[in-house]
Specification:
It contains three helices and twelve strands. The protein is 45% helix and 19% strand. The chain is of the alpha+beta class.
Length: 247
Amino acid sequence: MSARTTRTRLFAAATVALAALSLTACEGDGLNTGSPKPASSSASADESTGPSDDAKDDTGSAGSSGSAGKDDASGSGTGSGSAGGSGSGSGKSTGGGDKDSNSGSGSDSDSDLPGKCSASDVRITAKNASRPINHLLLTATNTGSKTCTLPQYPAARFGEAQSVPPVAESSKPQSLTTLASGESGYAGVRLSSGDGSAEGGHEVSTLTISFEDGSIARAELPSGGVHVDNDLTVTYWQTSAANALEY
């Protein structure tokens, strides 16, 4: 073999070897810089994304718990508010109950109180008293069906008198005289001084008694009328004739 042929073969072999080395280097670079790197990046991204999603899920669960807590708190608040409202309502109701009960009781009490007697409710008679002398006994009898209360004292007008006689304050009872149907009240009248020392003496034959509602009752005097003077005095209405004639 000639030297030229030998050189030619060596060159060809070197070229082939170089090409092989180049191919190996390319393949190595492909292994190091190819798809594995993106895969690794993708995996990292996936791993990074995975925990983030889990965290979100955990956060979401926490959020749900928080929401549930809020709901519970709200429910508790509502319950508390309801209880508070109930308590307050009860207090108001109690207060209101007390107020309605008192008002009702007041109304019932008012309705139970007897009304004032009128001239149409009573019949009044006038009779001479045996004792003391110069005294007249007035008797007021309830002829109605309802209980009524007499005025404090009889507003009596004898004859044409322009005013009613004064009342003996010492005869004032502790309470007004109240008459049930058929019951009677009594008042005494001192017609004149016992010794005739008082002035203004004269005879009268009529007697009228006014009531607080403006009505007027007429009482018939003993036959021949009565003698009155400036000592004319009446007592408060009493529950007994004996009390009425003590003054």
